[in-house]
Amino acid sequence: MPSQAPTQPIGDSVPKVDNTIAVGENLEFQRKWWKFERVIWSIFLLILIADVLGLFGRGWLSKDTLSDSAQTLTLNYERIERASTPSIMTLHFGPKAIQNGRVRLYVSDSVVKPLGAQRISPQPAVSTIGNDGITYTFDATQIPASIQIALEPSFPGRHSFRIQVIGGAPIESAIFVVP
Amino acid sequence: MAIFVILRAAFGYLFLVLMVRVVGRRPGKQLTPFEFVLVFYLGGLTLTGMVGNEASLTNAVTQILTVATCHYGLAALRFRFDNFAQVLDGTPLIVLEKDCWRSETMSRMRIQDDDVMDMARAQGLPSLDRIDMAVLEAFGELTVIPKKHKEEDNHA
């Protein structure tokens, strides 16, 4: 024989209005919630403004330019990037960078792995691995000369990198990747 | 990394719960076309960030399990703690009582007298003075309690 389902008498758990209609209104909580809503809408607005300005990448605040002291290499890049979103790092070479019709550029491994270098334009004549990075050799005539590295970071976080024209001073910096 | 797949799914679900809660409830029994756009568009945009370029079946299953676990967790917390249920669902709000509008509630919840009258007409009430009480329920529907019900109860 099946056992009986457990039961419980109906209680007066929902507060009533005028002792007749059970509504269960909590106006005190609701007033707190309205205050919270005002704060959260302000935060939403601030997030949108920060986004337009580039605080989360792809905007004015995220762009940066770095050079070594001898102006051998000038780097235009985005110091804040978004994960799985393409961006371009442009490298402008100074006159001292071109030696014997060639530019030799060292790029640390972090540019290839966490920062997700997809391609280099133009293609280097020679790529040599070693010293925790890759050394690219480009044929070059005279300035202005520049190359572009297409990046697409995979992982959020802060990723340090080092770029150097062989014979010049290294440029060291970091890119912060937001999710 | 697998953990990011789970974190993205959990964040997407909890963020959508917050957004839908904050965007607010509108009176009515069914979604209006305006709200359809909101629901589908928010869902679609969240999906882009959750899935990314990882479209494997394993990812899909993991993310569905994550969302299901989050949903179960919220439902369990909601059942266990009344305060949490209020945060998640809100509280019923009286908008009309004793022949007076609750003006603060009406303006903050963006409800007009027309909305109440719509529901009153649906119950066969010809005018607002036949309403004893109107309540905006936590799930968004407006409940109209006619005066005659109260009188009948008193007679009984």
Please, could you describe this protein's structure?
The complex is a heterodimer of chains A (179) and B (156). With 179 residues, chain A is of the alpha+beta class. Helix content of chain A is 17%, strand content 40%. Chain A has helices spanning 27-53, 109-112; strands at residues 16-17, 21-22, 63-67, 73-78, 80-82, 87-93, 102-108, 117-121, 126-129, 133-139, 145-151, 157-165, 171-178. In chain A, strand 12 and strand 13 form a beta hairpin. The longest helix of chain A is centred in the first third of the chain and has 27 residues, at 27-53. By secondary structure, chain B is of the alpha+beta class. Chain B folds into two domains: 2-89, no CATH class; 93-155, 2-Layer Sandwich (CRO Repressor). Chain B is 63% helix and 12% strand. Chain B contains seven helices and four strands. Chain B has a four-stranded antiparallel β-sheet with strand order 2-1-3-4. In chain B, strand 1 (93-97) and strand 2 form a beta hairpin. In chain B, helix 1 runs antiparallel to helix 2 (33-51), helix 1 packs across helix 3 and helix 3 (57-80) crosses helix 4 (82-89). Classes of the chains: A alpha+beta (179), B alpha+beta (156). At the A-B interface, helix 1 of A face helix 1, strand 1 and strand 3 of B.
Radius of gyration of chain B: 21 Å
Overall average residue pLDDT of chain B = 85
Biggest sheet statistics of chain A: 6 strands, mixed
Count every beta strand of chain B, where a strand is a DSSP E run of 2 or more residues: 4
